[in-house]
Amino acid sequence: MKVIPLSKDDMEEVRSFCADEFKDHLVYSHLAKRENRDDFKSLLQVMAQHELRHYEFWKSVLGTDPKISIPNWKLMLFTLSRTLFGLTFTVKFLERHEEQTIKSYRQFLNKLPQETAAKLEEILKDEELHEKALISELNESIVRYIGFIALGLADAVVEITGVHAGFLGATTTTLAAGVAGLIVGLSAAISMAAAAYIQAKHEGVKSPAPSALVTGIAYLIAVVILAAPYFVTHSNILAFIISVALAFALVVAFTFYSSVINESDFKREAVESTVVLFATALISYLFGTVLGKIFGLQSIFHH
């Protein structure tokens, strides 16, 4: 193919397109080689071929081989992501920049001859339709239960942070705050699991028990993580700060995960969740302070 005369900036952008497409090809090929499920392996191989075809197109526009590679440690990170978070998350994470890619590709249509632009249109169809259709074929248990995990984690983070904030205002004893968090957390986990079971039954889920179990376990894990600081320090304020920091980390991490899975706005959801978390902590702290003064809890727990 005849090299298309483009500006220096255009050529740098084409080089960037080449790099993105080929790196995605390498990652998909790497994941496909290590995939145990035949249907997932086949899907990854198709995705890898798509990316390679797109790379070959941009390489022809560039007029030279850009000699792109990717470090092994990065490939290992994607393998780890596949193992820990599932293939759906890993693939959608790789494809998270698709909207910007499609926008950039469309801007290039007017810069290319008709025949070359027609080939780019085919690539755009791959990006907009074919790859989304392939990703929609992924069917993983972790994604099916994502809503129940979110229910357990979100409720636990807000509720237990509220309990600890209340005790921060009521007493200086870390042990009391830690034990209270565990007691409330255990009771609430059982309640949440029961609610998840009923919800799953109403939604027609064939096996509601796993949904209840996932919700309860997610809740308990969050409870233990948030209560742990109260058992390793005698400073209630320090324990609370560490616990809130852990709560914030849990909220941000899970919000990011769910935003990738659901293809939603991470920043907006993270801000909303954080506001709810800190508002609950503040209200609980003020309420705990009032109760502490009314009933003299500070002196009771201190002695």
Poorly predicted spans? 299-303
**How much strand content do the residues show?**
under 5%
Roughly how much helix do the residues carry, as a percent range?
over 70%
What's the tally of helices? 13
The CA-CA distance between the termini, in Å, is 85 Å
Structure description:
The chain is mainly α. It has two domains: 132 residues, Ferritin; 158 residues, no CATH class. The protein is 83% helix and 0% strand. The chain contains 13 helices and no strands. Helix 2 packs antiparallel against helix 6, helix 8 packs parallel to helix 12 and helix 9 packs antiparallel against helix 10. The radius of gyration is 26 Å and the shape is elongated. The C terminus is likely disordered.
